[in-house]
Amino acid sequence: MIKKDDEIKTDKDRIDYVEKKLQDNAYLFVIDDLWTTQAWDIIEKTFLVKNEKGSCVIVTTRKADVATHCSWTFKEICPVEPLSDKHSRELLLRKIYKGNEVPDTHRDLDDVTEKIIKKCEGLPLAIVTIGGLLATKPINKEEWEKLLNRLGSELETEATKQILDLSYYDLPYYLKPCLLYLSIFPEDFEIKCTKLVHRWMAEGFVREKRGMTPEEVAEEYLYELINRNLILPSVVGINGRIKSCRVHDIMRELLVAKSIQENLIFIMGEQENLTPINSIRHLIITRSNEMTGTNLHGIRSISIFSADVSSIFSSPSKLKLLKVLDLSNLTKPSGYFKHAVRHLGQFEHLKYISFPRKHEFDLDLPKSIGKLRDLQTLDACMRTAPNGITKLQRLRHFISYDYVAMPEGIGNLKGLQVLKWVDIERSHPRVVKELGQLQQLRKLGVANLRRKHYKKLSDSISQLSSLRSLVIRKLHNEISRFESEYYQEAPADFLDSVMSSPPEHLRSIEFQGVLGKLPSWVSSLSYLAKVTLWDARLEDDGIVVLQELPNLLLLRFCTSSYVEANLTFRSTKFPKLKDLLVYNLENLEELLFEEGTLPELQTLKISYCNSGISGIQYLPKLKKLTVDSSANVANLDEVQKQLEEHPNHPALDF
């Protein structure tokens, strides 16, 4: 564009020249792979002339914050979706055959081609990289199968490493260990975000940040990695929060290679004799192995993804530096597992313990657990917590699959963020009152609550100003010795006496037990997003307090939680509700939606009900209706017709 005879001597001359040329012309700028907001600011200030002539600027970037910075509105941001199988195949074959026509003989390779496409999961970078590798191989099934089986080592080429290194070295220092840590999890493993956050904390990856809890900081790290497209969201909750994530197979291969190179991990079952085990920090066991005589003194974390526990725990004294013990994926409790539990007190640096959430792993923790003064997370299945647990001053997450009898002194655990489940009836009598001392508590689950506990629990919960999630299961009213009489005679307003002034920032509540109606204070919870009810025995006027909640997104009516024949959602009510479940309401005959109700509802699920459904056409944003095989919708033909005529054409799943 710049001619030889133009007076261009300096960078400023070039900038002035370009600006002048663009002033009177429509232009198209394509800026590929922009990495920083600062670079955009320079480009925008220097070159982009606003001349109102229909000019266009297209920016590609791997980073969500850069995309947001470059755009005026969110509508201008177009997230790139994975390629379809069809387009993945086209790109792969174009790369292999260098744009030439695909020969007829390729049909013999169709099955292995499909396996390769599945491995790439629609990621263009992966497709191009593997296509480039295949282009250098003889075109026959045997060679392609070989490459597919050793894909990890093949990806360790300089070009691919450079791509990973570019993303890796662009990360701020605090995210680098967090990303490499993902190499611990197996291929295609769905990683629970809470597990990942708690493990990062235990490893010391999470720095302090004023005004934020360590959990919030770690979650911020997670979203940074997701926004950079280095982690893939897997399950997203109704409120938009990511519940689980995973790592693309290709990215995982590269992370594993880098972690092994830096002596961070050893995968028992995949890389025997490749790395001296005494030099690594994280041990991953994918199949049971005898490890007697192995030097394990430097290991900081053990993650087992096999059916049984390795003999590694036969000598606990070898694991003095162990911080993270994750046995949550075991399928059977062996002698080695029980031995490890009995000797937990010897792992004095442990910060994270996770055992399977299954009744067959129900265990009695040893008194020596009180020696684990650095423990932050205890996730296990137990019925009774030992007295020593009250000494764990740094414990932040106590999670049990079963209802737990807690000892006196639980109020000493001032840093607790999560406490589930406390069996109130079986716990020490002072535990109910001590719950009010846990001022940092965000999630609380209690069970087996009787009338004698109502007042004390009410007082305790009212003091928990940080509480976001409250679950109360097995509410007993003690009107009769028999549960059937509870249902008949329970007072409609008793829950108001349980808690008259709840924490105002509650976002989720779940109640299991006879209520008759919901307490009036529920209508004051402006942040409430999720409500789940079991055995509540509500009548028509019992759900009035839910109708006006400004942020209610999810509502579950489960097993006898509603007793009327007709459940009607009235016009203009439930302004934000997106997800509705109607489960096992034995009296229900008609589910009715009035015009103007549920303007945001997207998902409706009916299970174990024999009701009719009317008013589907009045749900403007409905995307999916699921009718469980156990349900018997009386007017199913009419419902199908309503769905076909609906502007969104919602899916009907059985």
- Strand tally, please? 25
How many helix segments? Answer: 20
Helix content: 25-40%
Strand residue content? 15-25%
CATH architecture of the domain at 160-256: Orthogonal Bundle
CATH topology of the domain at 160-256: Arc Repressor Mutant, subunit A
Sheet/helix structural class: alpha/beta
- Low-pLDDT parts are 479-492
Would you give an account of this structure?
Residues 4-97 form the NB-ARC domain. The protein is an alpha/beta fold. Among the domains are: 11-76, no CATH class; 85-154, Helicase, Ruva Protein, domain 3; 160-256, Winged helix-like DNA-binding domain superfamily/Winged helix DNA-binding domain (Arc Repressor Mutant, subunit A). The protein is 28% helix and 18% strand. It has a 17-stranded parallel β-sheet, sandwiched between helices. Strands 3-5-4 form a three-stranded antiparallel β-sheet. The chain has a three-stranded parallel β-sheet with strand order 19-21-23, with no helix packed on it. Helix 4 runs parallel beside helix 6 (124-134).
Kindly list the characteristics that best describe this protein:
globular; WHD_DRP; 20 helices; 654 residues; Helicase, Ruva Protein, domain 3; 28% helix; three-stranded antiparallel sheet; LRR_dom_sf; alpha/beta; 18% strand; WH-like_DNA-bd_sf; NB-ARC domain-containing protein; Arc Repressor Mutant, subunit A
List the helices and strands and how they pair.
Layout (H helix, E strand, L loop, with lengths): L10 H13 L4 E7 L2 H10 L9 E6 L2 H7 L14 H12 L13 H11 L3 H11 L6 H9 L1 H4 L3 H12 L6 H5 L10 E2 H11 L10 H14 L4 E5 L5 E5 L2 H13 L3 E4 L13 E4 L15 E4 L19 E3 L8 H8 L9 E3 L22 E4 L16 E8 L13 E6 L7 H4 L8 E7 L1 H12 L6 E7 L7 H7 L4 H5 L9 E5 L17 E5 L9 H4 L6 E5 L7 E4 L9 E5 L6 E4 L9 E5 L4 E3 L9 E4 L8 H10 L5 E3 L1
Parallel strand pairs: 1-2, 6-7, 7-8, 8-9, 9-10, 10-11, 11-12, 12-13, 13-14, 14-15, 15-16, 16-17, 17-18, 18-20, 19-21, 20-22, 21-23, 22-24, 24-25
Antiparallel strand pairs: 3-5, 4-5
Pfam families: LRR_14 (PF23598), NB-ARC (PF00931), WHD_DRP (PF23559)
Keywords: Plant defense, Repeat
GO molecular function: ADP binding
